[in-house]
Amino acid sequence: MSVLIVGSTALDSIKTPKAENPRLLGGSASHAAVAASFFSPVKLVGVVGEDFPKRYIQLYKRHRIDLEGLQILPGKTFHWSGEYELNMNNRRTLLTELGVFETFTPTLPKAHQSSQFVLLANIAPSLQSHVLNQMQRPRFIAADTMDLWLNIALPDLLKLINRLDAFVLNDSEAHQLTKEDNVFAALRKIHKLGPKYVIIKKGSHGSILSGPQGFFICPAYPLHKVVDPTGAGDSFVGGMMGYLATAKGSIDQNIRRAMIYGSVVASFCCEGFGLNRTTRIRRSHINQRVKELTKLTKF
Amino acid sequence: MSVLIVGSTALDSIKTPKAENPRLLGGSASHAAVAASFFSPVKLVGVVGEDFPKRYIQLYKRHRIDLEGLQILPGKTFHWSGEYELNMNNRRTLLTELGVFETFTPTLPKAHQSSQFVLLANIAPSLQSHVLNQMQRPRFIAADTMDLWLNIALPDLLKLINRLDAFVLNDSEAHQLTKEDNVFAALRKIHKLGPKYVIIKKGSHGSILSGPQGFFICPAYPLHKVVDPTGAGDSFVGGMMGYLATAKGSIDQNIRRAMIYGSVVASFCCEGFGLNRTTRIRRSHINQRVKELTKLTKF
Lengths: 299, 299
Fold this sequence. Notes:
2 copies of one chain form a homodimer. Chain A is of the alpha/beta class. Chain A has helices at 28-37, 54-62, 125-133, 147-152, 154-161, 171-178, 183-191, 232-246, 251-270, 283-297, and strands at residues 3-6, 10-15, 20-26, 42-49, 65-73, 79-84, 91-97, 117-120, 140-144, 166-170, 197-201, 207-211, 214-218.
């Protein structure tokens, strides 16, 4: 089964204390799509401008990502620029040029409307809902978000959350949404907003799933060095959804392992700028780290 | 086998946003000793003043803690007073009255000197070393510390670390000691100071072991509510050492499970003020949570 992924497709200029990389391929949908592509076919829905480098189109294609839903419009590609502090945990946005994203309305090609696995990667919640409105009956809908939408589009976001099977957010967003410092108390409150599965991402501390079978404490793969964490969260959900779309059995049977796979793809993402490292790995590298992670958590 | 535990024995006055509790039984050795007592016999080494409430002596005795090494001296018991912020992560010290601790020199009774398992719970590193100097050949020596000693007694602490089998510290202390933000990079540096096993505690995010068999990612038991985290780290190492002292097989075979047991005892510690909750549980409650934690981490 394939995964339909909608989200941002962008050019990222990323500064860390050690290096500066302009106009990398970025955006939530790019990271999620490449991550998912290791496990299942991917249909990408997004928008880029005429300045979008051909080599990035080639990159998508090398990952066999279906680009029928990628609009190329007159104007500039969404450009984000950010800077990380020394500890790689805090980042600040230096610049956001929306470009063609300003007027983007995702329209699903006919063939996409019957997709069974849908990932609404980070993008305005009104657009995420707009995508859902065009769909028939997906089997599993997951969405990610960011603090910006909690700040400026909370009513839209709440409407969206109520339509999801799985809602994925990071710990500071969970705190912002629920006013709960305790992650398990926050999970409980978020379930009341609708989703059967809630996943809170905690960066290098891993992630927590709350679902019908209780909690799952998902570890992060140990990294001695983080080069650039941009897109790690998107890679996590992308990898998870890709795994879920092709795994046999129920969501409940597979979601824990799916998170482990997502966690491992996210670890590769952190080891290079943008998608530099993720695009250089194969499924066998992922399997190897999953094996290691299994050993690292056994007791 | 029994565990010898040396550390502080104190009265703690703890303020949280919800409540205030004066003169609870506290101190690193008290928490660690009670935690260890669920698994093995414990010999406590510490000092209290004449004001030390009889009911706390009774409490130690109910846990069958050997008090031959507990000195009762003229003067006041060490008194610490602290206040937690709303998120229960940040605390500030309101008052520290050293009392009889000011001139304390731990002297080991003859019977204690041949102990095989030694936990040097948080106390000045010079005193931790002084205890080691009186011992024959312990099979396994672990020590905990705190930021204060990194600030005012680093040379003493480094000398001590070099004599340990296992060094336990929290993530901010690991950062302070190594200048490494990355916990795995920090672990590598701390090994170079001597210990075969290094454990970094990360509070509600669990802990990480680095040892001869690689890393172990140890989860924290999920708590919906933290009443008072004081002593959780001491309970963790205490529980771990108690488990290790009685488990059959090598340290390598047992240390991961020992950390899981320690983690569970620490979870109980957080659910009440001081030792209020920990002293009300039985081994069966611990086993139950270990079972749950096993389920929560399976994939």
